[in-house]
Structure formats: structure tokens, C-alpha cells
Request: fold
Amino acid sequence: MSTLNTIAPLLNRLFEESDAMSVADIPAVATLSGEERERLMRSKTDYIHMYSQLKDAALPVSRETGALLYMLARSSRARVIVEFGTSFAISTLHLAAALRDNGGGYILTTEFEPSKVARARENLKAGGMLDLVEIREGDALQTLRGDLPNHIDLLLLDGAKALYPEILSLVESRLRPGALIVADNADYSPEYLARVRAAGSGYLSIPFADDVELSLKLA
Ligand SMILES: C[S@@+](CC[C@H](N)C(=O)[O-])C[C@H]1O[C@@H](n2cnc3c(N)ncnc32)[C@H](O)[C@@H]1O
Reply:
């Protein structure tokens, strides 16, 4: 029995609660035009305001991406994981389940919405995973600026999309050769995609399913 099976009822409940809430119905979002939404998703400056309007929404990775995260972390025997964008910790729970089945480890995750940090702690506690996770509250541009683990096995990028290049730059020197990077909805950051896909970038990178860019640090 894997830990992912053990926490499946909790994950199902969290995904169902998320499915029941339509982001498009949140008043601050409903009034935005399609173009304005696109612009906000790609903005390097307006993300704090946008995500504060979405503070009650889990915005989780898909169920498939959640399973993929467990599989990648489990099969690579990951022990050290960094996550950008905790929200309610649905992705964190998948990653933590893999660490538990790998024999233990450490996840550093970061979120700037205080109410989301509280929800994440509650969910991690309910899943019995709090001992594996450090949540740094604040903007990842600051919280990931220092005091990082030395050998990171897996990086999940799932916060403000436009910041993916900056966040990669903050943690890049700590990614071990062979480390995996999962970037959710990276299409919103052409700059990030160009960087990891460039010849000689030091990464092998492919789009995976519809919404994930999967990259491997070569050396
Ligand atoms: C798509 S959600 C993350 C979902 C989560 N990974 C999951 O699957 O359960 C993105 C989260 O990142 C947070 N966020 C966005 N930009 C951030 C930043 N610069 N620093 C910290 N948190 C950020 C948002 O508040 C939001 O909760």
C-alpha cells in the first residue's frame, strides 16, 4: 500500500472541493475580459493583486499532474524538493507521499497568502505530512533568495507563471545533475520555455500532456 493510496480520501475531498468552486464566478475575476486575464497571467508585477483575489481558490494541479508528481518523485528516489506556489498543498501532499515512501525527506514550499498557508498546514496535518514540509510564507522572490538545501532533486514551479525564469535562477545552482523540474502551465511564460528548451541550456526539456513542461538538469 503506498502513502498516496493512504491519503487518497483526503486528496479526493480536496479536489472535489476545488472542482465545486468555479474561479470564473469569483466577482473580481468574472468582471475581467479574456485579454485582461491573459495579461495578468503573464505579468511580472501584477501577480500579487491577482492571486490575492484568488485566495479562496485552491487552483491545484490536475489529478493527472498530481499522480505524475508522485511518480517522478518516487521513481527518482527524491529526498529534497522545492515547490513554488503552495496554495492548499494539494501538490505538496502528492510530493510528500512520495518522500514518505522513499524513506523520508524535506520539501521547501512557499506561498504569500497567509490564509492559504493556514489551509496548507491544516491539510498537511490531516495527511500526516507536516514533519516533511517547511512552508515559507512570503513572496518566493524573497523566501527562496537564501538558505536553500544543497542538493535539490525536484523543483515544482506552480506560482505566478511569469516568475518561472526568476525562480529557476534562484534555485538553479542547487539543482543536482539529473534533477527534474515540473513547470505547470508554463505556456504563460514563453521566456521560461525558451530558456529550458534552448540548445546548450543545460536542460533536456519537453512539453508533457497539455499543461506541463518537464525538464531534466543534465549536469
Ligand atoms: C496554482 S496555485 C498553486 C497550486 C498548488 N501547487 C497545488 O497544486 O495545490 C499558485 C499559488 O502560488 C501562489 N503564488 C503566486 N505567486 C507567488 C509568489 N511570487 N510567491 C509566493 N506564492 C505565490 C498563489 O497565491 C497561489 O496560491
Remarks:
- Strands lie at 80-84, 106-111, 133-137, 152-157, 175-184, 203-208, 212-217.
- The mean pLDDT is 96.
- DSSP finds eleven helices and seven strands in the chain.
- The first helix runs from residue 3 to 6.
